């Protein structure tokens, strides 16, 4: 996997790391030494401004510097509000903050443990509590919170469901908090008549109530809250609408109702319109019954008596603009607060409430991703979310960013992002808005904006826009945050952007590689999100030759090996193994292959990961071992730590696995089998039979890789006989004659040539085993079949007319044309040992003209100028004295024209290499 997207989840995120420090600086003349500035001499009001721009941890650190700053750091103006969502807030932390919280009025928290710790702050004058991630909150904890804060005016807990909160806790809130004005709760099991009645009796100022996604709400009892102005029951599916639409019209001050995501019928909406004298706004987003009725009769709410009904079918911007008669409100600017100030307070309060309930409903709709919403998202939903992104309400901003991150994702696992929706965000200027939000000082906003940028960047066009707008630099900066969640989402953004080849260098230039490596060192193994994203991004970057050097230079090899050795999280292990595989994939271009192999514990860890229960981990570990096996020292070291046995076991177990796992398992054995000892061990360990099974695969990459492993194994006579005994001749013949891969056909032909060049005959007399269990085979019959298909394979590269011209002409151009015709590009990546080259030279002397032609064809492939290892092969041929043998093969009267031409081309190649070396 090369990227990952994240929809919003309802996980409890109580522990999100610590805050990111703000910054403030004091300018001075360029030639003035910094030492002349006496920070302790700054006026108190200036110092207070600086302290206000710091997060709480850094503020406390600065305040500890001296007695004067300690007094300033405790100033009430610095502690009127706290946002502790980015911190772990438990009873101990609350106790340490208590001395400063006497003037605390507004508090934002995350996690039920944080809510339980609030009384420890001793903030008796607290007016507002906003909390999320409180799924585990209990009746007792909520009751204590209410009892200790009688001046509470606003209480909001959600959107995670409060599954353990009952009506008993609601009654306690009503009894203790008589000044309550706003109550917004999500996912209650019930809100019965007694609890709502208590709110009506004891909270005379209560004007804003939201029971979202609740199991049961007593509709009639809500009518007793006579002070109610704003009501939301969005997502409540068990309401009695006949009762609700009748009783709620009796509320004397009701201005707006939100019934989004419910099964409200149109006749209930009509009754509210007809009978309520004060109602101005009804929000019905994603109400199926209403939308179906509007499809049948678009004029169903035409006689709304001045009341505004918002649906996904209506033009929301134009509809909301009707709330401001006489005010020039253009398009999307209807949500601009400047337009509210020129109107009455009711309109302003209504717009503030509307922003909040729209952000709630749009996020919930994005999470459930119902069918038939594409038109809404493209025509106005995207623009609406982007407009809400500019809201002055912080939680509205954050929920809008979360919704933008969510509504574009079609499938979490496959990283499938809807192209039309993501590009709609881009076309409406959303990339710049999100990047601006990511640069704000609020870490909760930074994380949500970074998540949206990350998900949108799955679309390559949007990714380019993010990069063009400076997003890589912003994400790199956020990846250095001390807040774990901010760093995690930023790493996710870099992960997705690093898929694009054009962005890899930019990430490196911005310092992104160093930031990603530092993340692995900074966070403990339990933080799976940040580690997986950092390792995934490094894996993508390591696929680039130059970036792979930067990864190694930044300490990435050690960091990734540490993850592979010590982490227990499968997603992290998969990405770490993939990163190590990519680091080792550059062959002779850099030293990373050897560096990974020499890192303490690297090979042992990768060998151990081939036995993981997770297929993705096994696949990436096998891929890493495959790449590492190209280095001679690594190859032997892998075998020394049990790699041969582990990979033979893996190839035996993966026959029903994914194509990627099969290819990499066979590839790793291919790489290890270059060594004689390893090749023999693979054959004796039972590796032949599963490789033959994989060679039967219809998937080209799988049978090509298996053919390569069998080619190496067949070099040794014992393995060659095992292949024959296991029925391998028909398998290799099938590949040789019918594979769509020239490389697979080539290597299967070479394997057949190895098996029947005469060396296997002596072994065949006694079998492959010291006991009598060897299978009886007809070697002569198998040889005839093999030779027939080797000959057919070679002839497929023959052009009679072109070969005839080349045979009679001494012009180099004729041979060049033949060489160009028969060359297999991928064969240039094959590297043969001296023993293998010597065996092909020996085949040139073989009595069989078919083997001579096959050997000349193979040497042609290995020596073509420009091939990766052509010079290496030419040197081995020179050492073997192959020139005389090649000239004899080129002049032999019993040789085929193909063998003669191929031998001449090899001679020409050797001359060119020799000439190039001498110059």
From TrEMBL:
ARM repeats lie at residues 429-471, 470-512, 511-556, 555-590, 601-643, 642-687, 686-728. SMART domains: ARM (SM00185), FBOX (SM00256). Pfam families: Arm (PF00514), F-box-like (PF12937). Residues 36-82 form the F-box domain. Residues 1-10 have a biased composition (Basic residues). Gene3D superfamilies: Leucine-rich Repeat Variant, Ribonuclease Inhibitor. InterPro entries: ARM-like (IPR011989), ARM-type_fold (IPR016024), Armadillo (IPR000225), F-box-like_dom_sf (IPR036047), F-box_dom (IPR001810), LRR_dom_sf (IPR032675). Residues 1-29 are annotated as: Disordered. Transmembrane segments: none annotated. It comes from the Eukaryota. SUPFAM superfamilies: ARM repeat (SSF48371), F-box domain (SSF81383), RNI-like (SSF52047). This is F-box domain-containing protein. It comes from Urochloa decumbens.
């Amino acid at each position: 996997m090369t990227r990952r997207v994240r929809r919003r989840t309802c996980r409890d995120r109580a522990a999100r790391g610590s805050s990111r420090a703000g910054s403030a600086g004091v300018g001075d003349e360029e030639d003035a030494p910094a030492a002349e500035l006496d920070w302790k001499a700054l006026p108190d009001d200036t110092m207070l401004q600086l302290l206000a721009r710091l997060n709480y941890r850094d503020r406390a650190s600065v305040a500890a510097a001296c007695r004067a700053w300690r007094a300033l750091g405790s100033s009430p103006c610095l502690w009127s509000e706290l946002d502790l969502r980015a911190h772990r807030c438990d009873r101990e932390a609350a106790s340490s903050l208590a001395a400063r919280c006497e003037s605390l009025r507004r508090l934002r928290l995350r996690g039920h443990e944080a809510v339980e710790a609030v009384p420890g702050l001793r903030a008796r004058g607290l007016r507002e509590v906003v909390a999320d991630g409180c799924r585990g909150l209990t009746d007792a904890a909520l009751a204590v919170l209410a009892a200790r804060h009688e001046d509470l005016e606003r209480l909001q807990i959600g959107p995670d469901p409060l599954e353990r909160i009952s009506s008993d806790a609601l009654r306690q809130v009503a009894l203790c908090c008589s000044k309550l004005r706003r109550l917004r709760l999500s996912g209650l099991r019930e809100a019965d008549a007694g609890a709502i009645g208590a709110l009506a009796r004891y909270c005379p100022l209560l004007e804003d109530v939201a029971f979202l996604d609740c199991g049961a709400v007593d509709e009639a009892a809500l009518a007793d809250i006579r002070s109610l102005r704003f009501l939301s029951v969005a997502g409540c599916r068990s309401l009695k609408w006949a009762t609700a639409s009748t009783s709620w019209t009796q509320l004397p001050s009701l201005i707006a109702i939100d019934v989004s995501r419910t099964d409200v019928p149109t006749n209930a909406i009509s009754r509210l319109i007809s009978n309520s004298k004060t109602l101005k706004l009804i929000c019905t987003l994603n109400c199926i019954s209403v939308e179906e009725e509007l499809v049948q009769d678009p004029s169903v709410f035409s006689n709304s008596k001045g009341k505004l009904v918002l649906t996904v079918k209506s033009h929301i911007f134009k509809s909301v603009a009707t709330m401001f008669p006489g005010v020039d409100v253009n398009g999307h600017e209807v949500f601009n607060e400047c337009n509210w100030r020129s109107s009455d307070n009711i309109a302003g309060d209504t717009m503030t409430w509307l922003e909040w309930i729209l952000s709630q409903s749009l996020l919930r709709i994005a999470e459930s991703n119902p069918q038939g919403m594409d038109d809404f998202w493209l025509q106005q939903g995207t623009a609406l979310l982007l407009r809400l992104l500019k809201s002055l309400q912080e939680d509205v901003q954050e929920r809008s960013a979360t919704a933008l991150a969510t509504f574009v994702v079609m499938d979490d696992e496959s990283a499938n992002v809807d192209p039309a929706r993501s590009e709609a965000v881009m076309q409406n200027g959303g990339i710049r808005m999100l990047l601006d939000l990511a640069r704000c000082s609020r870490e909760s906003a930074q994380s949500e904006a970074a998540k949206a940028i990350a998900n949108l960047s799955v679309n390559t066009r949007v990714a380019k826009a993010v990069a063009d707008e400076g997003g890589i630099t912003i994400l790199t900066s956020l990846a250095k945050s001390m807040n774990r969640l901010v760093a995690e989402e930023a790493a996710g953004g870099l992960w997705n952007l690093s898929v694009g080849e054009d962005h890899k260098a930019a990430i490196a230039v911005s310092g992104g590689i160093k930031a990603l490596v530092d993340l692995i060192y900074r966070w403990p193994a339990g933080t799976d999100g940040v580690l997986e994203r950092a390792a995934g991004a490094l894996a993508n970057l390591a696929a680039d030759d130059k970036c792979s050097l930067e990864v190694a230079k930044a300490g990435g090899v050690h960091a990734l090996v540490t993850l592979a050795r010590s982490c227990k999280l499968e997603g992290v292990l998969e990405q770490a193994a993939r990163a190590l595989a990519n680091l080792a994939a550059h062959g002779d271009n850099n030293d990373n292959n050897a560096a990974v192999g020499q890192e303490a514990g690297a090979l042992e860890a990768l060998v151990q990961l081939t036995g993981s229960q997770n297929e993705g981990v096994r696949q990436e570990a096998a891929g890493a071992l495959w790449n590492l096996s190209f280095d001679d020292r690594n190859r032997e070291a892998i075998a020394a730590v049990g790699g041969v046995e582990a990979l033979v076991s893996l190839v035996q177990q993966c026959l029903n696995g994914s194509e990627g796992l099969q290819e990499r398992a066979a590839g790793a054995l291919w790489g290890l089998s270059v060594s004689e000892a390893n090749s023999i061990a693979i054959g004796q360990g039972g590796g032949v039979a599963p490789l033959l099974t994989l060679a039967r695969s219809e998937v080209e990459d799988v049978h090509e890789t298996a053919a390569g492993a069998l080619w190496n194994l067949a070099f040794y006579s014992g393995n060659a006989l095992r292949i024959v005994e296991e029925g391998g001749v028909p398998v290799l013949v099938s590949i040789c004659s019918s594979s769509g891969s020239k490389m697979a056909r080539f290597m299967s032909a070479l394997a057949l040539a190895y098996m029947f060049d005469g060396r296997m005959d002596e072994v065949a007399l006694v079998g492959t085993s010291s006991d009598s269990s060897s299978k009886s085979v007809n070697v002569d019959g198998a040889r005839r079949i093999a030779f027939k298909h080797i000959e057919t394979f070679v002839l497929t590269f023959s052009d009679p007319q072109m070969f005839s011209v080349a045979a009679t002409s001494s012009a180099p151009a004729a041979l060049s044309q033949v060489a160009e015709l028969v060359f297999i590009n991928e064969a240039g990546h094959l590297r043969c040992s001296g023993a293998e080259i010597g065996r092909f030279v020996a085949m040139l002397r073989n009595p069989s003209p078919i083997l001579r032609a096959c050997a000349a064809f193979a040497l042609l492939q290995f020596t073509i100028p420009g091939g990766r290892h052509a010079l290496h092969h030419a040197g081995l041929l020179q050492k073997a004295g192959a020139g005389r043998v090649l000239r004899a093969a080129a002049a032999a009267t019993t040789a085929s024209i193909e063998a003669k031409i191929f031998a001449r081309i090899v001679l020409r190649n050797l001359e060119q290499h020799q000439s190039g070396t001498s110059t």
